[in-house]
Amino acid sequence: MTDDGMEDWSVGQIVVVPHSWRGDGLWNEIQLEAQDRIGADLRQTYAELLRQPLSPSLMSLVCQIEAQIGASPRNG
After folding, report:
1. pTM of the predicted model over 0.70
2. What mean pLDDT do residues 8-14 have?
């Protein structure tokens, strides 16, 4: 962000931007910063989700599906 608009907003803080500023470069920078934060948070959330173990019932279902796929004749 530019020096005149440099602000550190805490996570979850709502930023109110007057309608007249919305064409301003500062508003675009605020949007980009917010989008970057959201993207980083989503990537972290998904990464954490992928590290979680599957439940026993879901693991059983995965094994059944894999067994069916392995047992079915291949079309070729």
Report:
1. no
2. 69
Please give the single-letter amino acid code of residue 45: T
**pLDDT tens track for 30-76:** 888 889 999 999 999 999 988 889 899 999 999 999 999 988 776 54
The torsion angles phi and psi of 64, rounded to 5 degrees, stand at -65, -45
CA trace torsion 7, 10, 16, 17 (10° rounding):
30
Region label for 46, one of left (φ > 0), alpha (ψ between -120 and 50) or beta (otherwise): alpha
Residue given tokens 């980083």 in the structure block: 40
DSSP tag of 64? H
Taking the C-alpha atoms of residue 18 and residue 63, their distance in angstroms, rounded to an integer, is 56
Amino acid at position 24, single letter: D
- DSSP state at residue 55: P
Asked if 31 and 15 count as a contact pair (C-beta separation under 8 A), the reply is no
